[in-house]
Structure formats: structure tokens, C-alpha cells
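Q:
Just now I want nothing more than another pair of eyes on a protein record. Here is the record:
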Amino acid sequence: MSFQDQIKSLFVEESQIPEEFHLGEIHQKEYLCNGELKPWAGEVSEVYSPICISTPEGLKRKFIGTYPIGTDKEATEALDAAIAAYDNGRGDWPTMGIEGRIKCMEKFVYMMSEQRELVIKLIMWEIGKGQADAAKEFDRTVEYINNTIDALKDIDRQSSRFEIAENVVAQIRRSPLGVVLCMGPFNYPLNETFTTLIPAIIMGNTLLFKPPKHGTLVHYPLLKALQECFPKGVVNTVYGRGASVIPELMRSGKINVLAFIGSSKVANDLKKEHPKLNRLRAVLSLDAKNAGIVTKYADIKLSVNEIILGALSFNGQRCTALKIIFVHESIADEFNKQLSGAIAELKCGMPWTKGVFITPVAEPGKPDYLKACIEDAKVHGAKVVNENGDTTIASFVFPAVVYPVNNKMKLYREEQFGPVIPVVPFKNIEETIDYLIESPHGQQVSIFSNNVEEIASLIDPLVNLVSRVNINSQCQRGPDNFPFTGRKDSAEGTLSVTDALRAFSIRSLVATKMNDTNKKLFNEIVKDHHSNFLTTNFIF
């Protein structure tokens, strides 16, 4: 059997799909607005899985279901609901005490966990993520929410005291910013979306939430929990074509925070639509072209193992993926040999295949784009150096190692976001630093070397070019309590458990001059619990 036939055989007939992973069609006919799950009878978007089914007519993408294509009317209703719930900071949610918001969030986590199995299956079917990784995404999201609750308790404990300076007494706390527009990515439709949505909610903001185009149905099982666990208008969903409904929301000038994970171009275009830029805060996680630098002092085997994880986990469809590898020319041949051998050993299959590493890519147009990138590289002098590296069947793209890549190629400049590994030979380490200087991206870099002096000499300049330098390890987001951000066009704002809480809030304080009248006033407010802000309550 040829390799192409082997890949084609991975797509099975529907009857051969294990029973526990079967997914019936899901037709979402409602959306969340102002505390109601409102019925939808309008136009819908059809959802087709990247998983193809083998039929007598050939391979066909599995039809999963439908979801609403909302219009400006529904988006405006959602905006009005969020504005009313915030009520210029006077709404029930923004004025609620931290303890009350935490109780609501704990209830949400409980109800969310009841939908675990269905959400995991939807992640698998909607974006082609392996079962183990889909389960990890769900569980990590639950852990993230619990860690966020703990972090907020810690912040509140530190704020539950008065500060006195220059005869002025004050209490300093964090307060919400207003109405947040939250838009997440397809590659981590649950986890990445919730890393902005959860801290935005728990800090007292009200939300408009637009699910990603690929991964919309993932959130459908959670709408009931969002409705029941938070006051009406706190969370409102927006559906429809982003290019149609989102600019109008921004042009309203009533969005206080844009929380967006996606391309820098889209983020820039959206920000420009806002008429009052000084009032808009942006929390953005954007493009990245993270580089791996393998020096002549590197442990090649270790480097290959980490680069496989960094470049090909979830088919390289990660913003933190290693997307270009610089290898010292003296070890390039051996590196390519070992990398190619390691790729040949990777398990390919459908998301339900036990131990699967390479699955179908999520975006329908991605296989053609990657093929075009490889052809462009060939025109400019590169070739695919691993066996079967240019094999594509329907939505399945077998990983390709392309070498030697140079600055004339798309793969040198563009973020491929897929299972293609460009390898660039270098003579002088300065070549790699020059690349990072000239790159519009500045998220992370990985250095592979066992030479102490070399690593030390690279750390100092690179921490000023990217936000995270990884030594002998892949680029990654976690642990979630570490800061996650980027320089240049890669990010705006910092996300981590604690940093995200700060990103969606602002320090506010109540202060007065120290005299007998004011001290008595403060004491009575605190003693009789007249205020949720001015309080010394300590949350355990």
C-alpha cells in the first residue's frame, strides 16, 4: 500500500467510528441575551468537521450541525443588555462584593463540569483535536477558573486593609472597566477564550462574547450555565459573520475593552473603528513566528524531541508553536536526519485514535495554503527533506521539513500555522538575532545549547526582543501563573492568572483626610457593612 493510500485509509466509514465518540447533529436554535436563551429562526451557519467520512462517492467532511448567523440587530441587543447590566458601574454585578461574584463563578464551574464529555467530543469533531488533548483542554480550563478564583481571593485579602500616608487614609481595590467584547481563537476554542472571558466576568465587567468561527458549537452546552449562574445581561452571546457585526459594535464607542485572540491585522482594524480610542483598553494575543535556535553545542536528540512537541503539537496550530528553526550549518544534516526520523514515528489518525499525534487540520483552506508555501520554497531553492513530507489527502497534511529556507520564501516570513517546519542553516549566531530584530513578531524563542557562555550571551539580548526565552525546551504558554504576553505585533497586555485579573480591572480607591469626623464615618461604614468596596472583610 502506498503512503497516500495509508493516509486515505485513516478516514473511515461512519460505521467504523467507535460508539463512544459518535456525535449526533447539534442544531443550536437559541442565543443568550439579557439573561434569556432566545429562540432563533433565522439564517444558520452549517458546521462541517475537518474529519472526513469515507463514502462510495469519496471522502466527505462530516456534517455536525448548525448555529445562528446573527445580524446587527441581535448584536445591538446584546450590547444594550451588557450596558444596562453594567449601568455605568451601578449594576448589581459591578457593585457586588467579591465573595458574591466568586460564589456565582463556583456554581458555573460545577455546571460546566457536568457538560465535560459533550464539550470534549465537540472539540474533537469541530477542530480535529485528539481526544487526550481535547480532554486536557477542558480540564485545564476548569483548573484555570479555580486558580483565578484563588488569585482573586489573594488580591482581595491584600486589599482588605487601609493605607495611611501624609495624614490621608485610603482603601485601594480593583474595580471593573465596563463592557467587554471577548473574541477567542479556534485552536483552543474553550481554554484560550476563557482565559479572557473568566477574569473579565469575575472582576465585575459585563460581556459580549463572540465564539470563534471554528469551535462555535463547543460553547453551546455551556449557555445554560452562563444564563443561570450570572445576573441577566452579564454575559451575552454574539453570533454572525465577524466582519459584519463586530465593526458596528466598535463604532458604537460603547465597548470599553476589546479582548481578542487572533491576527494583528484584524485587531488593528477593529481598534480603528472605535471613535474614542483613549477610552478603549485592548487585551490582545496576536501573531507569532516563534523561532528555535539550535546551535552547534546543542544536544540534537533533545532538540528534536522538543521541536517535535513545539512545532507539531495539534498540527502546529498554536500561536506558541515553533514556526521556524535555525540550525548551525555544521550539524544541519544530522539534525534534519534525526528530525525526519522522529516525524516518521509519529502516530497519525483521527482524534479518537489512542496515542494519536497528527490529526486533520481544522481550517478548510489550510492544506492548499501549506502546499503553496512549500511550492514557493521549492522555487527559491529548498526541498522537502523528510520522506512523505509533501503528502496531503483531503484535510490531512503529513508534516513536512523544508530545507534550506531563506529570506526569499513565504515560510521565512509568514506564520504558517500548520504542520510545516522551515529549517534555516546559519553560520553566525548574529544571523538569528538579526532575524528576531527584523521580525514583526516578538512572542517567544527557544535556544538549544549546552554551552553556558553561549546561552548566557543570548539571554540578555533576546529578553529585550521577545517576552519569553526558553532554554532547551519548546515554546509554550503555561504554567498559567507565568506571564503570557509578547512584544511588537504579538500581543498587547499580559495574561496569566493574576495578570488577567489586573488587565480587566483598574485600581480605584476611597480616601479621606484623617480627622475625628472622617474616622468615625469610615468606621461606621465598615462596621455595619454598608459598602462592598469599603470593607475589611477577609475571604478565606
Notes: Residues 290-490 form a domain with the Aldehyde Dehydrogenase; Chain A, domain 2 fold (CATH 3.40.309.10). The two ends are 63 Å apart (CA to CA). The chain has a mean pLDDT of 96.
